[in-house]
């Protein structure tokens, strides 16, 4: 894989947003309970679908379908500017990687399959990922002689502000990096060997819009949701423990991306992450990507990674 020298560049052709991720679960009541406890706005869309929103944001970030079968990632919808989409169409045609739309989708845009078999929609749509680093929640410091912490009974539910990124399992992480760079126009932010890799958008994005972790087959590992303070990360972890979701990892701070985190294990063995203060890469900046040693791949501080954290519970297609 070629390295990118430090410096600046003008905007290029590429994906600007994670528009929506779509997955299926056995039934919806567990999904509704989990995501409402997490702090998302969950809306019913017929008998067999839930749509996930964040507080005060009009965009639908995810859809969850009920199939009566084990959890399965269905497809990823990525936002692209119209001019970029036209150029990407040629690349997809030349590589002969086009695909039919997913039957649960609106059928719009371009459809293709990644090297690991993931179905992807490229959609002409507005940029919903931020154009600048997310601001922390405004809070005045306590004056001397005053208590800084809220009473436990006064703590409001943590409600994420937006989707930050999605991380997927892949049997070939480096092949997915090449695909994302050459076809989707994403840029490598950082990686650790062939075990994990993080990619950002050329139109300005968080340190990663999508990421990949090594597994025997493809699947959804976690979705990450932006909150406004490290205190909200900790309070989110506590509200989920109180709701009965006490398995996960955190609170800690990542090396790659720098964000504070807490992951909550969902009913199907994947995770939802509270994330605060992730690095931001403006559109006119080239991030000095690097291949990091394994001990820098996960966290600066925090509890040890649970043994189950990187188990892919989705069924292999073969």
Structural descriptors:
9-stranded mixed β-sheet, 7-stranded mixed β-sheet, 318 residues, disordered N terminus, 2,3-Dihydroxybiphenyl 1,2-Dioxygenase, domain 1
Overview of the structural elements:
The structure is a single chain. The chain is of the alpha+beta class and 318 residues long. It has one domain (17-129, 160-301): 2,3-Dihydroxybiphenyl 1,2-Dioxygenase, domain 1, CATH 3.10.180.10. Helices cover 15% and strands 32% of the residues. The protein is built from 4 helices and 18 strands. It has helices spanning 28-38, 82-95, 173-182, 230-242, and strands at residues 17-25, 41-44, 49-53, 62-66, 72-80, 110-113, 119-124, 162-170, 187-192, 196-200, 205-206, 210-214, 219-226, 248-254, 260-265, 271-276, 280-281, 299-301. Strands 9-10-12-8-13-16-15-14-18 form a 9-stranded mixed sheet. It has a 7-stranded mixed sheet with strand order 2-3-4-1-5-7-6. A hairpin with a 4-residue loop joins strand 2 (41-44) and strand 3 (49-53). Residues 17-125, 162-277 form the VOC domain. This is Metapyrocatechase. InterPro entries: Glyas_Bleomycin-R_OHBP_Dase, Glyas_Fos-R_dOase_dom, VOC_core. It comes from Verticiella sediminum.
Q: What would a concise description of this structure say?
A:
This protein has 318 residues and is an alpha+beta fold. It has helices spanning 28-38, 82-95, 173-182, 230-242; strands at 17-25, 41-44, 49-53, 62-66, 72-80, 110-113, 119-124, 162-170, 187-192, 196-200, 205-206, 210-214, 219-226, 248-254, 260-265, 271-276, 280-281, 299-301.
